[in-house]
Every structure is written in structure tokens, then in C-alpha cells.
Task: structure prediction
Amino acid sequence: MKFSKAVVKFRVPILIIAILLMIPSVFGMAFTRINYDMLNYLPEDMDTVVGQNELLDDFGKGAFSFVIVEDMPDKDVSALKTKIEQVEHVESVLWYDSIADITIPKEILPEEIYNEFNTENATMMAVFFDTSTSSDDTMDAIRAIRSTAGKQCFVSGISALVTDLKDLCEQEEPIYVAIAVVLATVAMMVFMDSWLAPFVFLASIGISILINMGTNYFMGEISYITKALSAVLQLAVTMDYSIFLWHSYNEQLERYPDHREAMAAAIKETLTSVVGSSITTIAGFIALCFMSFTLGRDLGIVMAKGVLLGVIGCVTTLPAMILLLDKPLQKSKHRSLIPNMNRLAKGIAKVFPVFLVLFGVLILPAYYGYSKTNQEVYYDMGESLPKDMEYVIANTKLSEEFNIASTHMVLVDAKKSPKTIKSMMKDMEKVDGVKYVLGLESVVGSRIPQEVLPESLTKVLKSDKWELLLINSEYSVASDAVNKQIDELNTVLKRYDPTGMLIGEAPCMKDMIETTDTDFKVVNAISIVAIFLIIAAVEKSISLPVILVAVIELAIFINLGLPHYFGQSLPFIAPICISTIQLGATVDYAILMTTRYKAERRGGQDKRAAVRTALSASIPSIIVSAMGLFAATFGVALYSDIDIISSMCMLMARGAIISMVCVIVMLPAMFMLLDKVICHTTMGMKPKQQSTNTEVSI
Result:
């Protein structure tokens, strides 16, 4: 009570401190770097990651792109190549004139090389950068190349993808927040009992979101997914706490004539209730930190921090705001549009066997769909982008005109003889889907002796330690075909050079597939166990955690099973994150009803009356909470052109509604069926029941 009284007493200083904290938070948010490359989150000890670092450190090459030039004379292409070479952070450009003067006929090149790099109306050059794939410098260089090259040129490669993704995200993100705020406000105004309270909630939560985003500065950088989702998620998840404080305050006003005393009592009650609820949500997000694919840690830390800051804001800045605006808040109250739920609660309790049967009928097909959805995800982020995006257009041209769907790079020991490397290249070209392997040995032969090759070419493809080979593949990134191809290429490579490394987007993506497949199982298990233990501790029960987790898991199975039955493919990160987020965020609905059910049973009511009372009292709060999460995410899902953002928001929106329905109809049925088990396995329920029975018998 001391804390709550202190908040009431120092409400003005609290608001001043909150406003002052917003100033450094704005700067922290502005200077937090955003990472748009999923491959950056692979474990550092993987061969592909080690190889990428080796390429940059020893070769001075990081990012790589193909530039396709259409309908341009060779003389102009050569001039364009010179201009591209002058772009800052372009390390080298490889084209025909890297091998020979353009006055010499192109036919001097080996026929297969000439044919692969030229079509009737287009030619292709390889551009290497001296910076990493997703660095700001590389993105600036991509923009400069596009500006220099004009409309006849198209830049492909993962760096171009990252550049376009960044530009699209920066354009969309402010709109995400605006949509979430507007729709969440409308939902609260409709389902709550005040027109003004939602705006006060948003002001308080907005401060917490800003502080959370500002403190991300100390993490160095965050993912674009984290940036896009964290504000929307924090708004949706922590809105419950604000609603709880508001309801509690209005109840306390009936007991205390002084609104400051009423607020102190409300803060105390809210803190007690919200701590258990928020811990389960935080545990769900912390479970993401156990992913070896460190995007999970990125999102998990930011969201766990956001929930904690949301709780702090709910019992500090929000009470201060409500007290300062008490008169207009009371005047703006209206009757809630949610009707009395006694009749609905009575009906659900009466036909509870129907919902038990429904639970049994749904569980198997829901789990089957859920397990299949996890196998039908996609990993190629290019698939999720609008078709008119520059990167997508460039990749389409690369595929249609040159039949190249992906490019791998090989680092092979520079001490290996040209004969050995040439033999290895021939074996690699026999692998299904390999169009050709390009290296120094590709252009060395009877027509061009190695001695006459210009230094500019040898410098591009060879260092003191490594020789670089490029492998162009007909198979798309993240496909089963390319993954099989990578395994076969690695087998050939290790036979000739055990120290050699196969790197590039497709090999990295293959590692990502294997990593996240394991992560999904680990994170799921950790989140379930953690939330199970927290519920067991909060409710002091062995049986209740099993019941609550079972009901929410059914909701998760249904939510993540539907894409399989609808024929939809989700981005790979969605099932991992959504299963954890939905469990952590919506188990609160079940905890709310369970707490009231326990209180009624302890008070001496029979199971049917206890379930009816708990249900009728909880439904309005559950509806408001679920509709807040739905409203904050559904609009973003409809608006976003980035499928990974759109898919995750749609899953969260749908998950909120499914969890709401499951808790309202399935959980009371479980209580009715397992009441005796609950009473015997929950502290504080069995003794009370015994004493009541004894009195009756006497």
C-alpha cells in the first residue's frame, strides 16, 4: 500500500519524469540501427557464416549482385561499368572487358561463358562490394548504382532485396502504428464505458512504447520485424493492464469518497492481479530468446522489456493521468455496449458436455493442420514482396533471360593447382541444376593463356589465401532442389579441398531452415513449461496449469492449422513466434476466469454457480481485451505489403478471437468436468470445501 500511496502523492513529479524520459528515448530510437537481413541472425559458428566473414576479411568482398543491362551497346556498357566501379564501396565489377579489350570480339571467350553472360538484348555484370550484405554502406551503394545505371539496368541479389525492404518498411511503419492506434481506440470506445479513457490509456502506453523503443539503442541494432511489430504488440498486450486499473478504480470509487484513496486501493489491487498475468506474457517472449536463430532473442528481449515497461506505466503514469483528468473522465462515461452476460453464462454452463465433445472433435484435425503448417512455410523473403518492386523485377529478369535463380560462391585454397580446380569445377557442373562454374580456370585455355590475364581480373577472383568461384544455379533459394544441390556441391568441394567453403544466400538459407526447424520445437517446449510453472505457482495448483495450457494450445492449433486447410504458406518465422506470443498473451484470459472461479468456490458456491458467476463476470473483460488485440493487429495485416508483417499480424488478430472463444466456451466446460480434481489439487480449495460439508452434516 505504501507504493500505491506514493504514486498518488507524487503523481505530478511522476508525469514530469515520464515526459523527461521521452526526450532521450526519441534520440535512442532515432539512432538504433535497423537490420533488414534475416541471414545475419544465423549462429556465428556455422560454416556459411564463417565463410562470409572470411570472404570479407581476406578478399575484401562482402555483398554481391548481378547487374542486368538491356539494349545497350558494348561501348556504353563498358562506360557504365567504369561508373559503377567508382561508386563508393563497390570493390570490383566483373564483365567482358575485365578479361579483354572490348575491341576484341566477344567470341574469343569460351562459348559457354559467352552464352551465359549474354543474350540477344541483354548482358550481365557481377558487382562485388567491400561491405557486408546488409550494411548501410551497401544499401547506399545499391541506390547509387540504380541512380547511375538508369531504367535499362536491374540490380539483383540479397543486398538489393534488403535495400527495397528497408525503403518499404520506412514508408509503412508510421502507418502501422497509426492504424493500430485508431482501431484499438475505436474498439475501446465501443466496448468500454468511457469515451475519453481510451485516449488516456493510449497516452500512457505511448510513453512506455517510446521508452522501450529508445532503450533498444543499448542493443546496438534490432530487426525490422521487431521494429514493425513491437509497438503494435506492446499496445495490444499491455492495453489489458490499463483496462483493469480503470475498472478497479471505478469500483473503488464506490467504497472511498476521496478519489485519491480510491486510486491508491486500485493501484494495489491492479499490481497484485497484473503481476501474475504479465509474468506469463513475459515468459512467453523470453522463451523466444532460446532460439539459436537470434532473431527470436531480438524480438523476445524487446517485447519482454515492453511488457515490463507497460506494467510499470500502468501503475505509475496512468494513475497520475487519470487523477489529473478525473472530472472529464467521469463526465465522459457511458453505458457499456456489452450486455449483461448472466444468461449466456447460464447457457454455456448448462450445455457444457457439448463443448467437451467439441474439444475432443477439434483437437486432432487442429493438431494435424498445425503440424502440416510448420512443414509448409517459406524462407525466401523475396516471395513476400510486391511484384512491382525493383528487386523482384531484377530477379525475374535474371531468371527469365539468363535462367539463373540463385548464385553460390566457393572459397577454395589458392595453393591448389589450376588442374585440380578445373577438375573440381567440371565435377560441380555435373551436379543437377548447376548452369556453370565461373573462376579463373573458366577463361584460361587454348585461346587465353593464364599469363596474359589482366591483373584486374585475377585480383577479383584470387587472393593469397583463397580463390573465388561463382556457381550459377537454375534452382530457387530455399527450395528442396537447391538444398539437395548444395549438399552435392559440398561433397565435391570437400573431396578436392577439405578446407573449402560454399557460401552465399542459398547455402545460408539452407542453414536457416535446419536451425529454425530445431528452434521451433525448443521454443515451444520452453514456453509451455515456463508458463505451466508460472500458472502452477500463481494459482497454487497442479491441475489448473494443465487445463489452462490445454485450452490455449487448442486455440493455437486451430489458428496455426487453418493455413494448411486454406492452402496458405506462411513465412518461416511466423509459426515459431505466433505459438509463443499467442500462448503468452491470451493465457491471461484463462487466468482471469480461473481466479474468479476459485474465489467463488472458496466462498462456498457449488461448481455450477461458481462457473456461471466466473463466466458472467469475466466475459466482458475478455471481450474487451481480445478485441483490443484484434483491432491493433487486423488493420496492419490488411494494409501491409510485406507478407511477413501481414501474416504475423493476421495470425495474432485471428489468434485473439480464437483464444477468446475457446476460453469462454471450453474452459468453463473443463471446470465443470474436473471440479473435484481441481479442488483436490489446488491449495486453499479442498480444506474450505471440507469445512462447509462438515457444517452441513451437523
Observations:
- Residues 687-698 have pLDDT under 50 and may be disordered.
- The CA atoms of residues 185 and 198 lie 6 Å apart.
